Amino acid sequence: MTENSTIKTLKVPQHVGIIMDGNGRWAQLRGKRRTFGHKAGIEAVRAAVRFARSSGIKSLTLFAFSSENWKRPQEEVSMLMELFALVLGSEVKRLHKNNIKLKVIGDTSAFSTKLLEKIKKAEALTHNNDALALNVAANYGGRWDIVNAAKVMSTKLVNGEISSDDFTESTFSEHISTSGMPELDLLVRTGGDHRISNFLLWQSAYAELFFTDILWPDFNEEGFQAAVEDFSSRQRRYGCTGEQMMTKDPEQQQC
């Protein structure tokens, strides 16, 4: 059975988040500097985007640079920023050609003016594309996302734009960085660690988690398909029983 035919039989997640971990260790295992692994990880990003688009996933959110990554050695941080700018410039036309919409989420205020301009142009060029929403989380933290949404809503409250009754889970979700996207269905982490490292905290409330020992540069279409197959095999109950989720009676199915 081919990969495409297999995907057609699966329950495909609509929104997938990936913590792309293991670049540095991948390089060290080969006697290279950590920066070599980050460069090698670009092809894994391309593979993930190809797979997501071809399999019918609507949104793919990649954890490119966390708000905690500034603590890393300055050489590595500088290279990551340079690599981010380079990839934006070299990949955006490919994304646009494949009808993929690019959005950068996170606290971009820390970025250089030059990088911000590249982000602005890339987002503008791909704004109307609808085959796949590719979200790149850069200088992103889940706690920052929640606090930022609370700040925005608090400002609206002070200005009389909303009332305290408007502070609901639904309206709060409209103010986080992934607003307007499908609920996060699947969160994947490569590299062997079993934690979510401050990534999409609000969005992960009912997401299925998938951890793999594969280091990010080695994560390809087959690795992504394994994650989707695992997701497809799970029963998502949202607090209900398995029997409730399996019933076909809409009056009994409250979930």
Describe the structure.
With 255 residues, the protein is α/β, with parallel strands linked by helices. The protein has one domain: Decaprenyl diphosphate synthase-like (Undecaprenyl pyrophosphate synthetase, 3-Layer(aba) Sandwich), CATH 3.40.1180.10. It is built from 9 helices and 6 strands, in the order H-E-H-H-E-H-E-H-E-H-H-E-E-H-H. Strands 3-4-2-1-5-6 form a 6-stranded parallel β-sheet, sandwiched between helices. Helix 2 (23-29) crosses helix 3 and helix 4 (74-97) runs parallel beside helix 5 (113-126). The longest helix has 24 residues, at 74-97. The radius of gyration is 19 Å and the shape is globular. The two termini are 34 Å apart.
* Amount of beta strand: 5-15%
- Could you say what the CATH topology is called? Undecaprenyl pyrophosphate synthetase
- Please state the CA-atom Rg, rounded to the nearest Å: 19 Å
CATH architecture: 3-Layer(aba) Sandwich
Number of helices: 9
Helix-strand string:
HEHHEHEHEHHEEHH
Mean pLDDT: 90
The general outline is globular
| Domain tally | 1
Biggest sheet record: 6 strands, parallel
Question: Largest sheet, order of strands side by side?
Answer: 3-4-2-1-5-6
> How many angstroms separate the termini?
34 Å
* Model regions low in confidence, pLDDT < 50 over at least 5 residues: none
Find the count of extended strands (DSSP E, 2+ residues): 6
- Top-tier CATH class: Alpha Beta
User: Which structural class should the secondary elements be placed in?
Assistant: alpha/beta
CATH superfamily: Decaprenyl diphosphate synthase-like
Q: Tell me roughly what share of residues is in helical segments.
A: 40-55%
Oligomeric form of this entry? single chain
